[in-house]
Amino acid sequence: MRRPPLTAAGGWLAALTAALLLLAVLPSKAAPLPDVSAEQIAAGKRLYREGRTGDGTLLRAAVRSDVAMRGAGLACTNCHRRSGLGSSEGGIGIPPIAGNTLFMAQSNNLVRNYSQGELSNISRPAYTLQTLARALREGINSSGAPMSPLMPRFDLSDADIAAVAAYLRTLSAAPAEGITEHEMHFATVLTPDATPAEREAMLEVMKAYFVRKNAGTRGETRRAERAPFHKEWTYSAYRKWVLHEWTLSGPPATWAGQLDALYRKQPVFVLLGGIGRGDWQPVHDFCERRELPCLFPHLNAPPPHAERDFYSVYFSRGLRLEAEALAAHWRRNGHDGETLLQVYRAGADREAAVALLRAAVPGGEDHRIAAGDTPDAAYWKRLLRRVQADRVVLWLEAQDLDGVAALEDGAHAPAAIYASSTLLPDPALLPAMQRLHLLHPYQLPGQERQLARLRVWAKQAGIQPRELRVQADAYFAVTLAGEALMHIRSNLSRDYLIERIEHMTDSMLYTSTYPRLSLAPGQRYAAKGAYIWHLAADADTAQWVVP
Amino acid sequence: MNTTDHTTRLHLRTLLCALGFGIATLAHGADMGHDHAMHDHSMHDHAMHAAAPQAASMENHEHHMQAMNQTGYQRAVVRYTLPSLQLTDSRGQPVDVAQLLDTDRPLAVNFIFTSCTTICPIMSATFAQAQRQMGVDARDIQWISISIDPEYDTPERLSAYAQQLDAGANWHFLTGDLDSIIAVQKAFAVYRGDKMNHAPTTLLRAGRHQPWVRLDGLTSSAELVQEYRQLAAATH
To answer: Rounded to the nearest 5°, which phi and psi values hold at A268?
Structure first.
């Protein structure tokens, strides 16, 4: 290992200064920086996020004393996270190393505000470039104590260490936009393809939650005003929540411009909830570009590649999930060689599902119902005579199913018929059919006990049940945001908010129409499977399929 | 074989939490042959409340976690009764757990998930390095990594994960339906409710009818090899 001495300012003195500073104002700024260049920060970011050193090679290190590792898996972001504010996994706490923590002395009092909580008895002097180098190469912390062997012992040059130090100073340092001293701004996006009834159902839940949240916050704010000074930092997290409705219009290609204009007028900290039936990609891209969390919108067609990005988190892959579950079910049961007729109406959500299933089952035909047509029994019979198929999938809404029972009559009847539960939210409205199966990523009847909490809350708030899935999704989004923001307290970093949500979703007592919501670092679709539910049979015979 | 060997390789700094934590984990395990007096230390019932499907407040978990920055691992000799369960390997083939374990070949088992970025890459790298270190001996052993995030860790994802590790044919990566994965974790007393809360545990067994050696905490590769050699020597 290369280990030449570093030129650094007197660490001890810096530590003492930082400690004194800490006493004076909480929180204080880190000690001023030696000059760093933009290139240094960029190099530090590559090291931190991708595990690439200054000379372009991958990071190398020893972990747990003798396990040699190399590559992107060693990038600091894996453990200390993108925010630099640390984490805990597998029973092991990983400390925050963002500059305004690392380069400041830590007392218990201060550390309390970070994710490790009260038991972390961390008191240590501020890091200097020199002690940082020793930490990274030898695993000795700024107090001179050996660190957990989980923290890798890196083989790094002085330039790499200076670069990563420069990057750490920038990490989670700038105050996030959308937050003022007394307010936290949220926006919820409504695209033109959502129906007025759905929009109202969502907004009603969100607004009621905000009103109640703010009523509670007033009490907290009064407490904060009377709090002793060292508690101030904790309480300063309580701000009034303000909700902005961002209603988009026109074709999706124009949404990016509309969103930018809305954001310029009123920057927000988070896009919360939101509703759309078709294309959502422009909103997704906007969030990624602005580094703006976009949490749990109610959609039929979330973008397919969210896991390559960071800022958007979705309930599921929407109709795609239904199509994938069906394709997997057929593959596992040897049906993928059979012929398939898909019937659908125009729409980005349905077209995506049709294409996905078609790629898995090549034989058969996709039939789009023309805009002016209203299918009746004769329509379905004609269609079946022309296209004979083993299986039929209906990507249709209830108003198109009036005569659909005719599919089961006659010699050309398919072996099974499937329909999308997302497009048919009320199974009671379905025609009685022997061969109809619902692609159902939601809880089955009888499993919906979880929703009791929502019902009680809605009743207290004077909200009538309607568009239950929309209401439940909106309620999940606001309660999760509430809980996550409570966890991050005054670390108002957007990245940290996403990290907390990745971390806490599984353990949260949530209310949802989905049987199970689960996330982890990098996961961006919380619901992972769907029931294939034969409606003529008992609900408990429905098969859960995870594609 | 009712031996326990709790005191080896525990650094002083972690003794307290290791006692509070590691043993609490064992305390709700299956058929265990070890000293019950030790359970008195499990006052911090982290593992207890974490085992409930909906775990209690995250804050509490994190308090405990930070307290146990482990620099060592704990060893216990334990017997488990495995129910008959069907899992799926990384080629999508069904695997009967009882059948897989019904072997005279030595076994090494751990629990991971592919989107766990902190301890799991290290546990996997430790398995890989121990295999290299053992050379031909490693080929006698069945290495088994069981995903505790089965709905995300599809056979395809596990297969890609295995490829990254350059895993050989005797290293099996298993997933399954959620209930079976929970059942297998419970059978090995490693179930902690929430996957984000999972702890590094490695299980070794010399052969059929032998007890398991349970290692709680991160081991180094040399320590893992040493544990295996000790086990093999004791039973052959």
So the answer is: -125, 160
* pLDDT confidence tier of residue A26, bands split at 50, 70 and 90: very low
Planar angle of CA A200, A204, A209, nearest 5 degrees: 155
CB contact under 8 A, B58 and A507: yes
A124 and A237 together in one domain: no
Question: How far is Cα A7 from Cα A129, in angstroms, rounded to an integer?
Answer: 8
Residue with tokens 């008959």: B84
Q: What are phi and psi of B153, to 5 degrees?
A: -80, 80
**Of the partner residues B55, B64, B70, the one whose CB lies closest to the CB of residue A119:** B64
Grouping H, G, I as helix, E, B as strand and the rest as coil, residue A436 is strand
Within 8 A of B61 by CB-CB distance, chain A residues are 88, 507
- Outline where chain B has alpha helix (H): 12-27, 46-50, 58-66, 97-101, 119-134, 155-164, 178-187, 221-235
- Which domain does A32 fall in, by range? 24-170
pTM of the model: 0.85
- Tally A–B CB contacts below 8 A: 153
Task: Note whether A73 contacts B69, CB cutoff 8 Å.
Answer: no
Asked if A200 and A278 sit in the same domain, the reply is yes
pLDDT digits (tens, 9 = 90+) for B139-169: 889 999 999 999 999 999 999 999 999 999 9
Cis omega (within 30 of 0) for bond into A27: yes
For a pLDDT cut of 70, what percent of chain B falls above it? Answer: 69
Inter-chain CB proximity A528 and B119 less than 8 Å: no
Chain A residue numbers with beta carbons less than 8 Å from the beta carbon of B54 are 507-509
Give B1-236's CATH code, choosing from 3.40.30.10, 3.40.50.1820, 3.40.50.11500, 3.40.50.150.
3.40.30.10
User: Residue A134's pLDDT band (boundaries 50, 70, 90)?
Assistant: very high
Q: Among B196, B201, B221, which would you mutate to test the A interface (most chain A Cβ atoms within 10 Å of its Cβ)?
A: B196
Amino acid letter for position B113: F
- Helix (H, G, I), strand (E, B), or coil: what is residue B122? helix
